[in-house]
What we know:
The chain is an alpha/beta fold and 210 residues long. The protein is 50% helix and 13% strand. The chain has ten helices and seven strands.
Amino acid sequence: MDLVLLGAPGAGKGTQGALLAETLGTPKIATGDMLRDAVRQGTPLGVQAKAVMDAGKLVSDDIVLGLVRERLSRPDAEGGAIFDGYPRNVAQARALDGLLEDLGRGIDAVVYLEVDDDAIVRRMSGRRTDPETGVVYHVDHNPPPADVAGRVVQRDDDREETVRHRLEVYRENTAPLVEHYRGAGVPVHTLDGSRAIDAVQADVLGVLGR
Length: 210
Ligand code: AMP
């Protein structure tokens, strides 16, 4: 199954995507994670992407398409993928449609996690990542275990001002994807993403019939 997780930054796509990947045995393809890896490793692509990411803007469509194409060609993605943070605009959605069509596949469903802006800003300010595993925590709602708490870090782009800018970029570029997929006849399941992780997960599995 090929599934797109849509929603503003901080809506819970990464968390739900990871749970879903485990449940369905389908890999999660998260372009943000892939770009952060490239930044950490200091590859030429990472060096190029870092300033754009820190400013809360979108990295070029060509760069992310290259990453996604390579990732989709690996054997574990033969049966489908969960797309998190990709596509981010209509051009990327069309490119993904083309990639999947070449594989005889298409997006089967979209899960759209809705969370209002103020809740997003509150969430992001408490968000912390374990740099060793990439696991994401929240200081209040999902605190890291004691042996991890000492090494968690805040993402450079999770500062309030950058978050507000990322929300604008989202509204302008990414929100229209709901209509892109509806127009293409892909089922779009809209869920209230502001609730607890378990409650959202139960709904996600429910709408997917799992
Ligand atoms: P995320 O982890 O999905 O919130 O992504 C973090 C940052 O990486 C974004 O603010 C963008 O700068 C960049 N990024 C991630 N995915 C994409 C994408 N599909 N297209 C363009 N930029 C992206």
